[in-house]
Write a structure and sequence with these properties.
Distance between the termini of chain C: 32 Å
Shape of chain C: globular
Distance between the termini of chain A: 42 Å
Oligomer: heterotrimer
Strand content of chain C: under 5%
CATH architecture of chain A: Orthogonal Bundle
Largest interface: A-C, 40 and 41 residues
Helix content of chain A: over 70%
Structural class of chain C: mainly alpha
Structural class of chain A: mainly alpha
Number of helices of chain C: 14
Number of strands of chain C: 0
Radius of gyration of chain C: 20 Å
Number of helices of chain A: 11
Largest sheet of chain C: none
Radius of gyration of chain A: 19 Å
Strand order of the largest sheet of chain A: 1-4
CATH class of chain A: Mainly Alpha
Chains: A mainly alpha (about 325), B alpha/beta (about 260), C mainly alpha (about 350)
CATH topology of chain A: ABC transporter involved in vitamin B12 uptake, BtuC
Shape of chain A: globular
Strand content of chain A: under 5%
Number of domains of chain A: 1
Number of strands of chain A: 4
Largest sheet of chain A: 2 strands, antiparallel
Order of helices and strands of chain C: HHHHHHHHHHHHHH
Chain lengths: ~325, ~260, ~350
C-alpha cells in the first residue's frame, strides 16, 4: 500500500492541491464574514451549491454543450471558461448579499444574541437547498465537458492535467487579487477596521451596513468561483453538495485560524492534501469522517488554528 | 494582627503588552469594609477579575483563607466564599428576583439534578430552606416586595440591589461590590451606605469599588488606592484624603465625578 | 394568541389540587382519543390518519421535547440531534434482530447508549463557543450516519430488516398496522418526558440551565457548575432522542441510514423554534403543527423541508420567541411602584 502510495504520490498531490484551492475559496467566504460578524455564515455552503449550478447552466444552456459535444479549444474555450467563472461569481456574490439582508440584518439591528441569527441562517440554507432539490427532482446534475482534460505535462511520472492547472493558477490569482483588495483599497481597509473593532469603526464614521454587505459580496464572489472550479474538476453537482464541501471548507478556515485570510489559504491547502491522501488509504467513503476528526482535534487543541497567534496581525 | 481573609501578594496582570496591575499587594481583613479606589483605568475591576478567577494572574499570589486561588475553577472560588456584583448590571433578566437569588443559593446545595428529578426528601427540604433564605436576603436588602418580578422589568435601583442580594445568596465570606452606587441619587446613596454597613454587621467582609468619594470615605474602615495598576496608598480614610500622592492621582478630576 | 400561555398559567394557578388533577386527566383523555377521530376533519389525504399521528406527530413531539432541553432550556445549539435518534434506533435494530431481548428490555439500553454518546460528544464540544458547538454537533450527526452507511454490521445502505415489534403488554398486541396502540405507548413516553422536564425546570437544574442560557459567564461566577449542567442538558436531551429512536425502529421494523439525515435535526429544530424555545407547551404545539400540517395540506407535503426552512427564517426575524413564548407571567402585583 505504501508502495502504491509513493507511485501515485504526485498525481494525488495535484488532485489534492486543486481540491485545496477550491476549499480556500469557500473558506474565504466563511472567514471574511466571520471577521466582520464574528459569526459562522451557515448559508455559505448553499451559496457555493448555487454557484455550481450557475456554472452548469452557463456551459449547458448558454453555450449549448451536451455530453457528446466537441471540446472547445483556443480562444473560444477561454471565453467560455471566463464567462462561466464570472457568472458563477456574480450569482453567488449577489445571493450572498441577499442572504445577509434576509437572514442577518434585522437580527443584527435588534442585537439578538448568537442563537437567533444562526437559526435564521440555517433556515435560509434549507430554503436554498430545498428549492434547488425540488427543481432538480433530487437528482444529481451532470455538467457537460467543455474542454479536453488532457495532460499538459509530466512531473515525476505524474500527468499534470489542464483542468487542475487552471484551477490552481486561477484560484491563486483570485486569492492575490483579494489580498490586494483587502490591503490596498478603501473598502478593504474599512472591512479590516470593522473586523478589528466594529464599534470603533462606527464611531469613525464607517458605514457598517455597507461594509458588511461588501464583505458578503466578496465572500460570495470567492465562494461562487469555487463553485465554478468544482464543476470544472468533478463535472457534476447536486442540491446536497453544499453540506459536505461547506463543512470541509469551514474546517479549513478553522484549521488556519478563522477570521484570518492567510489562515484560509494554508488551511485549505492542508485540508485538500490531507483529505486526498487519507481517502487513498481509507477509501473515499470516510472522507467526511476524516474532515470531522480534523475539525474536532483542531477546535479542541488549538482553537485559534494552527497558525494561530503569529498571524493575528494579518486578520482581515 | 488578625489573619487576613484575602491576600494579594505582588499581583501582576498583563494583557499582551499592557500592564493592568503592577505588583499589587494588599490584605482584606475579616469583617472590614475595604474601599478600593482610583481614577478610571486604574485596574480596580481587574482586581475583582483576578480574585474571582476571570483572569489568571501573570505573576503573584492570591490567597483566600490561607489557600491559593491559582488555577481554581470560577464556580469553586465562589463556593469557597467569594462573590461579586457587576459594574454593568448583569442579572438573569428572564428570571424573577427570587429565582436570581435562589440560583446563587444553589451553590451550597447537596442535592443535585437527580435528587431533584426523583423528588428525594433532601431536595425538597433544601428547596424549601433556600426559598426562605432567598426571600430573607431580598428583605434584608430592602427589595423583598419585588420577589416575583422578572429582573429585567425591575427599576434600575432595585436591579442594583438585587445584584447584591444575589451575591449574598452564595453565602460569601467576602463580598466584592463593583460600583454599587453608580447612577444612584444622594438619598439612595445614603441608603446604600447603610446597607453596606448592615452587611458587614451581619458578618460579611466587604471589598468595595466606588467612584463616589464621600460614600467610600464614609463607609470604609480602610482604603486602598490604585493608579495605573499600582498601589499608591493603603490607609484609613482620613489619612487617604490627606495623602499627597492620592491627591496628585486625582488632580484635575473633580472629587465626585462619576 | 399572545396571552394564550399566560391565560393557561392563570387558570392553572387559580385551581386547587383536585381541579388540577381533573384538568390533567381530561387533557390526557382528550389527547388519547385523537386516534379515534379518523373520520373527521382531522383526516389526512395521503397517509393514513392514525399512522400520521404516530409518525411524524407523536415522534416529533417526543424529540422536540428532548431537543428543547438542550436548545430552549440551556441555549445550546445542537444541530446533530438526529445522531441520538439514530443510536437508539440502531441499538434496537441490532439487539432486536440478534438477541432475544424485546423492545422494553432494549429501551433502557438504547437510552443509555444515546446518553453515553451525548457524553462523548458533549465533553469536548461543550467547552466551545455557541457557533462552534453548532458545527461540531452538525458534523457528529452526519458522522453517525456515515458510520451506519459503511459498517457491515449495521447493514450499510440496505439498513436492518425484520426488527421485532414490542411484545404484548396487558394482553394488547402490537400488530404492525395497529397504529393506535403505538400512539398510546408514545403518549406514555411523552408524558414521562414532560414530567421529567417540568420536574427539573422547577428546581436547581432548571435555574442552572436558565442562568447559563441568559449569561453563562455570570452563572459560573455565581457558583453554577456550568459545564456539568451543560453536559446534563446534553445527556438528558440525548436520552429522549434515544428513546424515540428505539421506539421508531420497533414501529417501522426496518431502518436505513436514509432515515437519519441532517434534515431530521433541522426539522426538530424548526418544531422547537416555531413553538417557542424553552416553553414545553409551545414546543409541543410547534411539533404538532409542523408535523401534522404537511400531511393534512397536500401541497405542503412535497415542499415540507422548504416550508420548515421558511419557518425558521420567518420566526427568527419576526417572532423569535415562537407561538407560545417562554416569557413568564408576573404575578399580580401587590407592590405599588414609586413614581
Amino acid at each position: 500500500m505504501i508502495g502504491n502510495f509513493l507511485d501515485q504520490f504526485w498525481s494525488l498531490t495535484f488532485g489534492g492541491l486543486s481540491l485545496g484551492f477550491i476549499y480556500i475559496l469557500i473558506a474565504l467566504g466563511y472567514t471574511l464574514v466571520y471577521g466582520v460578524l464574528r459569526m459562522i455564515n451557515f448559508a455559505n455552503s448553499e451559496i457555493f451549491m448555487v454557484g455550481t449550478f450557475a456554472t452548469v447552466i452557463v456551459i449547458r444552456d448558454v453555450f449549448h454543450f451536451t455530453q457528446s459535444s466537441e471540446y472547445a479549444t483556443g480562444l473560444r474555450l477561454w471565453f467560455i471558461l471566463a464567462t462561466a467563472l464570472v457568472i458563477s461569481m456574480l450569482v453567488s456574490g449577489l445571493l450572498s448579499v441577499v442572504v445577509e439582508v434576509v437572514a442577518y440584518r434585522r437580527l443584527r439591528r435588534k442585537n439578538s444574541g448568537i442563537l437567533a441569527p444562526l437559526i435564521s441562517a440555517i433556515g435560509v440554507s434549507m430554503v436554498l437547498a430545498e428549492t434547488v432539490r425540488i427543481m432538480t427532482d433530487s437528482r444529481p446534475v451532470a455538467a457537460p465537458r467543455a474542454m479536453d482534460k488532457t495532460f499538459i505535462g509530466q512531473f515525476f511520472d505524474a500527468g499534470v492535467r489542464l483542468d487542475n492547472t487552471i484551477i490552481v493558477i486561477a484560484a491563486l490569482l483570485l486569492f492575490i487579487a483579494l489580498t490586494t483588495f483587502i490591503n490596498k483599497t478603501r473598502m478593504g481597509k474599512a472591512i479590516r477596521a470593522v473586523s478589528m473593532n466594529a464599534n470603533a469603526a462606527r464611531l469613525m464614521g464607517i458605514n457598517i451596513d455597507g461594509v458588511i454587505s461588501a464583505t458578503f459580496l466578496i465572500g460570495g464572489l470567492m465562494t461562487g468561483a469555487a463553485g465554478f472550479f468544482y464543476v470544472l474538476k468533478y463535472e457534476n453537482t447536486a442540491s446536497n453538495i453544499g453540506f459536505e464541501l461547506g463543512i470541509a471548507a469551514f474546517t479549513a478556515a478553522i484549521l488556519g485560524g478563522i477570521g484570518n485570510i492567510k489562515g484560509a489559504f494554508f488551511g485549505g491547502l492542508a485540508l485538500g492534501l490531507l483529505e486526498t491522501y487519507a481517502s487513498f488509504f481509507l477509501g473515499t467513503q470516510w472522507k467526511a469522517v476524516t474532515v470531522f476528526v480534523v475539525l474536532v482535534l483542531v477546535l479542541y487543541t488549538r482553537p485559534n488554528g494552527i497558525f494561530g497567534e503569529s498571524m493575528q496581525q494579518s486578520r482581515v | 494582627m488578625t489573619e487576613p481573609l484575602l491576600r494579594l501578594e505582588n499581583v501582576t496582570m498583563q494583557f499582551g503588552g499592557v500592564t493592568a496591575l503592577n505588583n499589587v499587594t494588599f490584605d482584606v481583613k475579616p469583617q472590614e469594609i475595604l474601599g478600593l479606589i482610583g481614577p478610571n483605568g486604574a485596574g480596580k475591576t481587574t482586581v475583582f477579575n483576578v480574585i474571582t478567577g476571570v483572569y489568571q494572574v501573570s505573576s503573584g499570589v492570591i490567597s483566600f483563607q490561607g489557600g491559593s486561588l491559582a488555577g481554581k475553577k470560577r464556580y469553586k472560588i465562589t463556593k469557597s466564599g467569594i462573590a461579586r456584583t457587576f459594574q454593568n448590571i448583569r442579572l438573569w433578566g428572564d428570571m424573577t428576583s427570587l429565582e436570581n437569588v435562589m440560583t446563587a443559593t444553589d451553590t451550597h446545595k447537596k442535592s443535585g439534578l437527580l435528587s431533584g428529578l426523583f423528588g428525594m426528601p433532601i431536595s425538597r427540604r433544601e428547596e424549601k430552606r433556600d426559598k426562605a433564605r432567598a426571600q430573607e436576603l431580598l428583605d434584608f436588602i430592602g427589595i423583598g416586595e419585588y420577589s416575583d418580578r422578572l429582573a429585567k422589568n425591575l427599576p434600575y435601583g432595585v436591579q442594583r440591589r438585587l445584584e447584591i442580594a444575589r451575591a449574598l445568596g452564595t453565602e460569601p465570606k467576602l463580598l466584592l461590590l463593583d460600583e454599587p452606587a453608580a447612577g444612584f441619587n444622594p438619598a439612595e446613596k445614603v441608603e446604600l451606605a447603610d446597607t453596606i454597613r448592615r452587611i458587614r454587621d451581619a458578618g460579611y467582609t466587604v471589598l468595595l469599588i466606588e467612584h463616589d468619594m464621600s460614600l467610600v470615605m464614609k463607609v470604609s474602615d480602610r482604603v486602598v488606592v490604585l493608579d495605573f495598576g499600582q498601589k499608591i496608598a493603603d490607609d484609613v480614610p482620613q489619612k487617604i484624603q490627606e495623602d499627597p500622592r492620592v491627591i496628585e492621582a486625582y488632580l484635575g478630576v473633580p472629587e465626585n465625578a462619576s | 394568541m399572545i396571552n394564550l400561555r399566560d391565560k393557561g398559567a392563570e387558570v392553572w394557578e387559580k385551581s386547587g389540587r383536585p381541579a388540577r388533577v381533573a384538568i390533567v386527566l381530561a387533557s390526557i383523555a382528550a389527547v388519547a382519543s385523537l386516534p379515534l377521530m379518523g373520520g373527521t376533519i382531522l383526516n389526512t389525504p395521503i397517509a393514513s390518519y392514525e399512522s400520521v399521528l404516530v409518525n411524524p406527530v407523536a415522534m416529533f413531539v417526543l424529540m422536540a421535547i428532548g431537543l428543547n432541553i438542550v436548545i430552549g432550556k440551556s441555549g445550546l445549539l445542537d444541530l446533530g440531534y438526529v445522531a441520538f435518534f439514530a443510536i437508539g434506533a440502531y441499538t434496537m435494530a441490532l439487539l432486536g434482530t440478534r438477541t432475544g431481548l424485546n423492545t422494553w428490555e432494549i429501551l433502557p439500553i438504547g437510552i443509555a447508549m444515546a446518553m453515553f454518546a451525548g457524553l462523548i460528544l458533549g465533553v469536548p464540544a461543550l467547552k466551545l463557543r455557541g457557533d462552534y458547538l453548532a458545527i461540531i454537533t452538525l458534523g457528529f450527526g452526519e458522522i453517525v450516519r456515515i458510520i451506519a452507511l459503511n459498517l457491515e454490521t449495521l447493514g450499510r445502505s440496505e439498513g436492518i430488516l425484520n426488527i421485532p415489534t414490542p411484545p404484548p403488554i396487558f394482553g394488547v398486541e402490537y400488530a404492525f398496522d395497529s397504529h393506535r396502540i403505538y400512539f398510546w405507548t408514545l403518549l406514555v413516553l411523552i408524558l414521562l418526558a414532560i414530567w421529567m422536564v417540568r420536574r427539573l425546570s422547577a428546581r436547581r437544574a432548571g435555574r442552572a440551565w436558565e442562568s447559563i442560557r441568559q449569561d453563562e459567564d455570570v452563572a459560573e461566577l455565581l457558583g453554577v457548575p456550568t459545564f456539568r449542567y451543560k453536559i446534563w442538558a446534553f445527556v438528558l436531551g440525548a436520552s429522549v432522542g434515544g428513546a424515540a429512536g428505539v421506539f421508531y425502529a420497533s414501529k417501522t421494523l426496518y431502518i436505513a441510514p436514509d432515515n437519519f439525515t441532517l434534515q431530521i435535526s433541522i426539522l426538530i429544530l424548526a418544531c422547537v423554534v416555531f413553538g417557542g424555545m424553552g416553553n414545553i407547551w409551545g414546543v409541543i404545539l410547534g411539533a404538532v403543527v409542523l408535523a401534522y400540517l404537511p400531511d393534512r395540506i397536500r401541497f405542503l407535503s412535497e415542499a415540507r423541508l422548504l416550508v420548515f426552512g421558511l419557518v425558521l427564517v420567518i420566526m427568527m426575524n419576526l417572532r423569535p420567541d415562537g407561538l407560545l413564548p417562554r416569557k413568564k407571567r408576573e404575578k399580580a402585583l401587590v407592590v405599588k411602584e414609586k413614581s
